[in-house]
Amino acid sequence: MKRLVLIVLALFAAMPLAAQDQLPPAPYAYRQLDDPALEAKAQGLMETLRCLKCQSQSIADSDAPMAGDMRHQVRTRIAAGEQPEAIRAWLIERYGDYVSYAPQNKPIMWPLFAAPLVILLLAALLLRGRFRKGSKSEASE
Amino acid sequence: MIAEIGLAVLWMAAALAVLQLFAGFSALRPSGKVLGGVVRPLAVMQGALVAVSFFCLIDLFLETDLSVKLVAANSHSMKPFIFKLAGTWGNHEGSMLLWVTIMAVSGGFVALIEKRLREETLLATLAGQAFVSLGFYAFLLLSSNPFERLPEPAPEGQGLNPLLQDVGLAFHPPTLYVGYVGLSVAFSFAIGALITRDVGPAFARAMRPWVLGAWIFLTIGITAGSYWAYYTLGWGGWWFWDPVENASLMPWLAATALLHSASVLASRNALRAWTVMLGVIAFSMSMVGTFLVRSGILTSVHAFAVDPERGSFILALLAVYIGGALALFGIRASTVTEGERFSLVSREASLVFNNVMLCGILGIVLLGTLYPLLTEAFGAKVSVGPPYFNPVSAIFAIPMMLMMGVGPLLRWRKDKPSRITATVAVPALLTALALLAVVVLAPGIRLLPLLGIAVGIGLAVASWLPLRGRNLRRTPLSVWGMVFGHFGIGVALLGAASESAFSTERLAAMNVGDTQSVGPITLKLISIEPVAGPNWTALEATVTASYNGGAPVTLHPQARTFSSPPGERTESALHTRWNGQLYAVLGNEGEDGRWQMRFWWKPFVPLLWLGGLLVAFGGLLALLGRVAQDVKRLRVGDKIAFRKARQEMLK
Predict the structure, then answer these.
(1) Residue B334, in any domain of the structure
(2) Separation of alpha carbons B551 and B510, rounded Å
(3) Could you report the per-residue pLDDT of B452-469, keeping only the tens digit for each?
(4) Is B364 an interface residue toward A (CB < 8 Å)?
(5) Which range among B11-15, B153-157, B409-413, B433-437 shows the weakest confidence by mean pLDDT?
(6) Which of A55, B287, B309, B449 is 20 to 30 A removed from B387 (C-alpha atoms)?
């Protein structure tokens, strides 16, 4: 965990717009885009990105300086015309899958996607068995 | 001295639990019948002793006895009284002692008042309860002694995390713990009934008040926790699918399923095996929740390794109890017959459907919570968050809520769909209308909030239909309870969906005197001034807000700085109207001297917590109704016995 934080911090320091805790937050950390449509797009993406320094909060829910910088990144890139998924891919490349709350289409995540289907299947089998037996015994009554 | 008394009394209570276990199980054999008489008194005494031990710890915290390690690490002499009190359970050791206390006191209570069950089943239940509490006694006494002394008293305590210094949070953990432990009583009943092969309506009736009580506390705990997150974290979020939140949601889901299936068992003598199984699952989820929260495994598998002793201990307890209970279930399941049959269209069937859907959500939440830990074992660090939980749980939740509108209208055992079509048509039509209206009025709304609004409205209306054609003054309290509970779910869903669909946000850098707007509200920053509290200082903004140009109201958001331990916290200011809530936060001062302000207008968001409280209120009505019924039944039984005795005498 510690190593990961260090790597993340190192990557962070390498970014041109990176700010440390002492510096004032980047301009778009606490400022919305003027175009409401673009802001909504940015907000939608920010809500699905993890604040790497917090416990289970998205970058849209955090006062951590790092979350502020990521918000700034997301907003400026959206304003520059980038698509949300491209920005997500860029962030994943930098920080790893951990940064995205939306599960990525990778083999290690497939069981997670299969889970609801498996549960539905099990439920259907259970209910079917239950009521088939039920109707049979009722017919024999 | 107090600390030593507390510890000694705790050891004595543990010894009594051993006796209770031994006596309870021996009494089940013909040779040990004599021992049966001591089990109840033992359970009562054990409860009383643990309560004494817990009061000793409270006293140490209130006096801030800094020679006790736990107090020095978690308290501070300057802390306000209420947080000294709450500090007792705001830490690992104290919270485990609270757990054991509630558990032993409930056990004593069962021993005192439970008279409906067969005596052997009750003894087996109390023995089971002793078995479960023994694990926790061992955990407390061997690896987390709350009364440990320091070699030398500390000069001053280290204080309590500022985020936790909040009145709401002071009572949040105990509320959840009462819920968890109530489920342990249900678990013991299930074990007792399995051991004596006595799974039937009497068992369900004895268990039901405990499940109901636990469920009420869990509902309140979750609602309050969500509101706490909403107003203290300063960004207006109210549910994060955080593992700690999930740890409280999972027992709630299981308890909800158990509650409904116990009702079927109590009134129809059906779903026997399923009810026992859910009793085991519900407590398992409480234990899993405790394990997740207490072991530190949440943040990372590696954090778990920092203090492996405690984590392993709870994991071992988990394996022993859950594995043991499941093994017992496996052995005895074949002797538990399924009970009465029912057809596909019946109230039982709708309850089974909803039970299965609840278990589906439970499975998804459990898997999603544990999945990052599983992948970490394979070297991949991933996150599972709202983009997974929201849509996937909706797959199960939406059909379930539709069924909630229909199920209570069906008759037990067998019914015809045609009998209720006219009644159901009203809420069905309303749901469709709401769907259409939202699509037209708010184009571009996402699918989940859209469904949430439509289904929420439909359910809120449909929940009142079971009262149709009834004499309202003679309707049993438990029916009112069901109506309020289901209505509350509809209301909460509506609030949640409306919040996520229609919230508007305004982030602004403001000078004193500037105006801004968010949604229909105009805001003006009047002043920013320093203020001080007992153990914090703060900057306080004065903001006036006016809705559509109406009379302005004043809000005071604060940015607080705590001194012991050092920390910062935003204190958001809320203004509630009938149609929504204004949420205002004061941030930092920018370079240019302007203040970072954050405002949200959240239409109908209070409905979310109002719904939660309505659900809990419904549970309370149901509990009162059931208890009143039981008391009546007992009285009638007594009267009959009395008359019989008198007739005998006259003869």
Answers:
(1) yes
(2) 22
(3) 999 999 999 999 999 988
(4) yes
(5) B153-157
(6) B287
DSSP B536-562: EEEEEEEEEEEETT---EEE--EEEEE
- SS3 of B370-417: the string is HHHHHHHHCCCCCCCCHHHHHHHHHHHHHHHHHHHHHHHHCCCCCCCH
Q: Looking at beta carbons, which residues of chain A come within 8 Å of B360?
A: 116, 119-120, 123
Do B297 and B208 share a structural domain? yes
- B494 located within any domain: no
Let me know whether B92 and B193 are in one domain: no
When mean pLDDT is compared across A9-13, B17-21, B227-231, B332-336, the lowest value belongs to A9-13
B139 and B69 in a common domain? yes
Q: Best interface-test mutation with A: which of B297, B344, B383 has the largest number of A CBs within 10 A?
A: B383
Per the prediction, chain B carries an average pLDDT of: 88
Q: Say if A127 is an interface residue toward chain B (CB within 8 Å).
A: yes
Closest CB to A56: pick one of B240, B509, B591: B240
Q: Is the minimum CB–CB distance between B442 and chain A shorter than 8 Å?
A: no
List the one residue out of B229, B16, B4 whose CA is nearest residue B137: B16
A-chain residues within 8 Å CB-CB of B381? 4, 96-98
Which candidate from A98, A103, A104 shows the least CB-CB separation from B381?
Answer: A98
B324 in the same domain as B187: yes
Beta-carbon separation of A48 and B233 below 8 A: no
Domain endpoint, select from B159, B185, B218 = B159
Q: What integer is the mean pLDDT of B44-60?
A: 95
- Mean pLDDT over each residue of chain A, to the nearest integer: 78
For chains A and B, CB pairs below 8 A equal 125
Does B487 reside within a domain? no
CB contact under 8 A, B382 and A131: no
Instruction: Kindly state whether A102 is in contact with chain B, defined as any CB-CB distance less than 8 angstroms.
Output: yes
B227 neighbors B239 (Cβ within 8 angstroms): no
Question: Taking the model in full, what pTM does it have?
Answer: 0.90
Q: How confident is the model at residue A105 (pLDDT cuts 50, 70, 90)?
A: confident
| Same domain, residue pair B265 and B155 | no
Mutate to test the interface with B, among A51, A119, A125, A140 (most CBs of B within 10 A): A119
Question: Which stretch of DSSP H or E encloses residue B515?
Answer: strand B515-518
- Residue B123 maps to a domain: yes
Q: Which residue of A has its CA nearest to B381?
A: A98
Whether residues B271 and B353 fall in one domain: yes
**Same domain for B323 and B186:** yes
Q: Encode pLDDT of B184-220 as tens digits.
A: 999 999 999 988 888 888 889 989 999 999 999 999 9
pLDDT interval class at B536 (50, 70, 90): confident
| B8 membership: H or E segment, kind and range | helix B2-26
pLDDT of residue B608: 95
For chain B, what is the domain count?
3
> Average pLDDT in the A111-133 region?
84
Q: Name every residue whose Cβ is closer than 8 Å to that of residue B354 and which is 6 or more positions away in sequence.
A: B257, B260, B400, B403, B404, B407
Residues B144 and B182 in one domain: no
